[in-house]
Design goal:
Number of strands: 4
Organism: Paenibacillus ginsengarvi
CATH architecture: 2-Layer Sandwich
Distance between the termini: 18 Å
Helix content: 25-40%
Number of domains: 1
Radius of gyration: 11 Å
Structural class: alpha+beta
Family: Belongs to the sulfur carrier protein TusA family.
Protein name: Sulfurtransferase TusA family protein
GO molecular function: transferase activity
Keywords: Transferase
């Protein structure tokens, strides 16, 4: 999936992946896609809930070798 920016949040524990995602999302234009890489197992539920509550859209998520990847479209 194409993304406009990639955020490396690997090695960060809750709530830092969300904090960094919010900060990076603020830099994007509406409709652009942020790709987030995280190792925190709670990131999947946290990012899905955060995206829904802030008007963004979690387009997809995947796991590769213990790294969780998320594609979030800015609302």
């Amino acid at each position: 999936m194409n993304s406009h920016k990639v955020l490396d949040a690997k090695g960060l524990a809750c709530p830092m992946p969300i904090v960094k995602t919010k900060k990076t999302m603020d830099e994007l234009e509406s409709g652009q896609v942020l790709e987030v890489h995280a190792t925190d197992k709670g990131a999947k539920n946290d990012l899905a809930a955060w995206a829904k509550s802030t008007g963004h859209e979690l387009l997809s998520d995947a796991e590769e070798n213990g790294i969780f990847k998320f594609w979030i479209k800015k609302g």
